[in-house]
Amino acid sequence: MSPVRSEPAEIVTEMSGVNPRKCMRCGKCSATCPSFSKIDIPPHRFVMMVENGEIEALLSSQLLWKCLSCFACVERCPRGVEPSKLVEAVRLLQIRGQGKNYRTPDDVPQFVEADEEIPQQLITSTLRKYSK
Amino acid sequence: MSFHYYPGCTLKTKAKDLDECARKSAEALGVPLIEWEEWQCCGTVYPQAQDEIATRLAAIRALDEARRNGSDLLTICSACHHVMKRINRDMQTNEDIRTKANNYLALDTPYTGQTRVVHYLEMLRDTVGFDELRKRVLYPLTGRRIGAYYGCMLLRPSKEMQFDDPENPSIMEDFLEAIGAEPVRYPYRNECCGGYVALEEAALVGELCGKVLDSARQKGAEALITACPLCRYNLRKNGSKQDMPVYYFSELLAEALGVNRTNTEPVRLEK
């Protein structure tokens, strides 16, 4: 007997602790998102797609790598939906897979060689966000 | 009252000015900062997922050490402050995280968020007091028009950070006034610099920093202050063409108190 596996959408809502059904589609998160011009799926649509269980499509979303974790969407959401937590959960779902790291410690020498002023904080946060 | 001082990784390397100026200023102001020798990097980003336990442990160890010493934990880097404050709140409010983290750490007494996390600016406001600070200033920054750059980490989410009004903060402007400068309020002072995507999306970070710097310049700022090494790096790297110096707030504090790095001995001030 194979173990019971949760649906990806269930995993994402549980991991994030977010209820995407609270979203009323006002789009304020997307309006305030500093990465809006660089992403394919804006935050309000991301939330809707989680609600619709379309996680597979989100796994290749640009937002996973371009969300700045600035928490503007969290602060300014009138319904307390916390979109950035959903983005983080989907990103983790992706990078927790074998060989799915977006960045690895092997990349660090090239960063540092490119600019010796780079603060440790930048390298650590990159690895914390983009690798497992 | 003494503080359990948590400098964080970057203050020991690329942001030594932030650390040294803060220490010398605290000494001059009579606020003892005690650094725990065994602190580890907080992780720099707050783990937003409920099931991330290992990435919370370094912060919890530092918080617990402060509890053992009966001190408040004092942070200065915006990212450290953000991580410490939110993980401490997790330990107070999230039973699942609290249980798993304590099971892992196996401390003598379970850690349940007893420590108070205080930012250096909050210490200046609440422990020293801005009125008292004003009296201690030897070299006021008279006529200097300085913009405060808050960024994200100190302010948001305000429900958890409880640092200041997230859309119209004032603590850094009040600080600037106390050291004799003229604070310049500008619209983009609490918008993101681009943070950690600097290595992935340099163009985006350039765009965002450009907006911040333009906004400050339009309102007449001649320089900016920040508490965050990454904000400072991004603003300086991307704003080089704009000729807008970006300082750590503690550098200006040390200058005003007369204890900046050119002085070998901190000046001791009488009340």
Summed up, what is this model?
The complex is a heterodimer of chains A (132) and B (271). Chain A has 132 residues and is mainly alpha-helical.
Features of this protein?
heterodimer; A: 132 residues; mainly alpha; Fumarate Reductase Iron-sulfur Protein, Chain B, domain 2; 2 domains; 9 helices; 51% helix; 0% strand; globular; B: 271 residues; alpha/beta; Glutathione S-transferase Yfyf (Class Pi), Chain A, domain 2; Rossmann fold; four-stranded parallel beta sheet; 11 helices; 8 strands; 43% helix; 10% strand; disordered C terminus
Q: How does this structure look, described?
A:
- The complex is a heterodimer of chains A (132) and B (271).
- The mean pLDDT of chain A is 95.
- Chain A folds into two domains: 7-100, Alpha-helical ferredoxin (Fumarate Reductase Iron-sulfur Protein, Chain B, domain 2); 102-132, no CATH class.
- Chain A has 132 residues and is mainly α.
- Chain A is 51% helix and 0% strand.
- With 271 residues, chain B is of the alpha/beta class.
- Chain B folds into two domains: 3-120, Glutathione S-transferase Yfyf (Class Pi), Chain A, domain 2 (Up-down Bundle); 130-263, Rossmann fold.
- Chain B has helices spanning 16-28, 57-68, 78-93, 95-105, 120-128, 130-136, 158-161, 171-178, 202-218, 229-238, 249-257; strands spanning 3-6, 33-35, 72-75, 117-119, 145-148, 182-184, 223-226, 246-248.
- In chain B, the strands form two sheets. A four-stranded parallel β-sheet of chain B has the order 2-1-3-4, with helices on both faces. In chain B, strands 6-5-7-8 form a four-stranded parallel β-sheet, sandwiched between helices.
- The two termini of chain B are 17 Å apart.
- The relative contact order of chain B is 0.16.
- Residues 263-271 of chain B have low confidence and may be disordered.
- The A-B interface holds A 14-17, 34-35, 37-38, 65-66, 68-72, 74-75, 82, 84-85, 88-89, 92, 103, 111, 115, 117-122, 124-126, 128-129 and B 8-10, 13-15, 41, 43-52, 55, 77, 79, 152, 155-158, 166, 191-192, 194-201, 204, 207-208, 229-230, 233, 237.
